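Exercise: predict the fold of this chain.
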Amino acid sequence: MTTEHIQEPQEQTGHTRRRFLAGAGGAAVALGTVGVGRAGADPSGTRVAVLGGGVSGLSAAHELAERGYAVTVYEYYDALGGKARSMPAPGTAAGGRADLPAEHGFRFFPGFYRNLPDTLRRIPFPGNAHGVHDNLRSGTEALFARAGGRPDLHFPLRRVTTPPAPGDLTPSWIRDQILSVLDLGTRLPAHEAAYFADRLLVHLTSCDARREDQWEKVAWWDFIRADEMSEEYRTLLGIGQTRNLVATRAEVASTRTVGRVIIEALLLWGLLGRGLDGDADIDRVLNAPTSEAWIDPWERQLRSLGVDFVLGTQVHEIRYDGGRVTGVHVSARDGGGDRTVTADHYVCALPVEHARVTWGPALRAADPQLARCDALQTDWMTGVMFYLSTPTPVVHGHINCLDSPWSVTGVGQAQFWDGRDFPRDYGDGRARDCLSAIISEWDKPGILYGKTAKECTKEEVVAELWAQLKDGLNDSGKTTLRDEDRLGWFMDPAVTGLGGPAPRNREQLLIHPTGTLYNRPTARTAVPNLFLAGDYIRTDVDLASMEGANESARLAVNALLDADNSDAERCRVWELYRPPEMEPLKRVDEVRHRLGLPNTFDLG
């Protein structure tokens, strides 16, 4: 085995120091103290090994390189971007075109994302004034497709034209708006809609302590009393808001996470235009395959900042001795080439299921929070791309097949790719659209074979998924999807062994059952030269997402800067929007919570 040292960086060009102001109510905060430590310290000789080239690893590398650190990123695959990257459907190109584009699953950039959009603006892109950020396109409508001839629900995603003035956002106004939406868009009984609106008021006015001490321990299913309500209520407000969106079952999903991120940040404040990324709408996607629109330009930017990349690398163990990380045992992904890489600091940016197997007993003993990560849970949420001979946008936004047993969601991609001509640029010229669909439930029987997705062969999964899409989109006398239009399909190769005794998915998603918050580690560890980044880290967004990955990287870099006594500006960190109108009610609830009393609006 050999020992490999990270090389000194090339001379940095275009590096600028940025100053940030802290704010309240969804604004940014600068963690750590600016100017502490070695005045005018030069970090250019300080080496950082970043383990993992997904969104969190690349975000950490970006922040560090801008501050002059010598960064090397070690990545398992031969391409960067992790679950966010695009990948070619091999063997599909002809006539000078690129292979048909494919991904782990479609990318979604909600308007409440603030940290990741800041990074996108700092990635140059030809012709764009605001970098990669200008490649985002807004969806205008969500389709909640129903099966069995039930009317579909079309949900506009534009912010309201006349939002409440400051001070007018009262609990009664919010309740009326929720009831109005439920009355217009659903077939819920009036008493069930009223009960759900009241439950949202409970969460909206709950103090932080109650959310962490009480609602983190209560499943969303129980919080909204789904068992006592109609099937429509359970489907729309239970399963549709959890399993279909974040792969977590409503029966176990943390009320704090669902209520705070999905209901409040994504839907309520998004529709009211508060706490958003500029003038963003709720739903945004990229205008080209993810790697073309984002990851490839990002790699070029990072290389220009002096970041090195070592691809095809398997991380085996983060070695610990004498109170510090002393090196990392790595090898070639396919075996051989064992070596130890060393640096001054280490950022572990691997997904949690891969990171925790690299933490040996000595390292775990040095920081008990690492052992608690064993309790964090992941599940399957994987996409299939269908290539169609006819443009089939379905809806100008995302599709949620509410009645599908596999919790299917999707989006017609070509309609948003205004810079691409699909048949001209991809495949053999026959495909004119790509319907990207995601399966979030892999453990329930389907409608075609009566088997779970994990029990099916890959071909059976595709046939079953297509059947469930048609079941939701082809009812009520319309035919949206036609078998004769389907030219081919692609599934993420990270899923293997389907139909056999041991199906495997290397790219799983962190899920959020009750109590997850308590097992999330902080970016700063008890080991002075080890830092953690990834969507499993405790962040304000508290959701497995690209935003959480980016926020965690900023926290890890700030902790590293503190440990290095650096005078570099700390990374700006945005928190979720907190409406000032709710703060007096939350202060009242804080007193009630300390006294052991329920929330004022919690009438049981």
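Check your answer against the key: The longest strand covers residues 313-321.
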